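Subject — a protein and its fold
Fields — amino acid sequence, structure tokens
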Amino acid sequence: MRTLSPAVIGLLAVNGAVFLLTALVPSWNMRMIEAFAVWFPRNEHAAVWQVVTYMFLHGGLTHVLFNMFGLASFGPLLERQWGTGRFLFFYFLCGIGAALTHLGVTEIEFQSAQTRLSELGLTAPAIDTMLNTGRYEGPRSDPTLRAAVIDLYRLYATPMIGASGAIYGILVAFGVLYPNARLSLFLIPVPVAAKFVIPAILLLDLFSGLTGFSLFGGGIAHFAHIGGALIGFLLMLLWRKRTPPDFEPSI
């Protein structure tokens, strides 16, 4: 097993400790989410620091294990090549970029849903009351109106958590530096070069974000993944280093 690097060990430890705390003390879980998850800016729980702190919260064992596996698999190579400081800068900037992308897309979707509700006859005060109280006082017999109300409230009241955006940035950086590295995937029996695997993963996320269809179920912030990957790619364009020609790792 590849030796872990200092920053990766620290990130694994903090993420693991936070997950254990929320799992072992259920009363802390919602408090942590209210304070540290990314919330829609108009939500009462929204705060500036959440674009960083959300990266240390996860929605379940599978979620945290998947992200930490990605961090442990790809992070040490990048940290050793860049140094700990630059690696942490890259990690957090990708995570912040993912959060801002998610918020930007959510704002666009919110405006669209709000306009649709107005067109269906729901007044602005009624919309504000529904968002502030969580109760819908309008007609319930119209399924189109009801679906639009649910969409709007979901955007307003659903927080985002997880380190996936930062991990996607790391994945892209790995692909740029080691395009011919062979990656072993769960569903593919033979290793495939990173230059093919990583674009395919990003295209799948983009497709899921645009269509709402996801192979891995709902509740996934696909555009946050794309945002983290995009920031990672832009950073690589600015300051990538050459990989030794005789070294192509296998993951």
